[in-house]
Request: fold
Amino acid sequence: MDYPNKNTSVTRAELANRLFFRLYQCANMLHKTGSRAVEKEGLTTQQWAVLGALSRPEAEGGMSVGNLARYLMVSRQNLSGLISRMERDGHIRTAPDGRDRRSRLVTMTESGGDVWMVQAQPKIHDYYEQALAGFSISDITHALHYLLKLLDNMKRLDGDEESGQPDDS
Reply:
């Protein structure tokens, strides 16, 4: 005899496995194809994310390394090497935070702003158009809704108390 709950549980597990594997593939393809879209500007998708985070009005005065790591949902260790490379390339600068000398503040340089706004943005928007070909506004809205819902659940698993904050970057 088949138990409906058992079949539902198996189906749910199989679908979850497929969903998370597709998310993994999408993340890898985003890194590969997104980096290719901005490689002439000397950027990777990780650097694109940092410049995007720093270009928001809320980050006008800069962001601490810790806050930037939390916003991007990466470890401080992973962010450290990225910040060093971007600082070497002249896209960002770090300095002691005037409010907390133990903390370092990351800001975008004028050169970084030019790379971000003038050189990379048109290519990023073109990349979005190509990657979202065939998606309606409704499709994009629904996909974003479900990804945010999934992200909230994952943040809870991680113990992050800021799970209700939307991330529009």
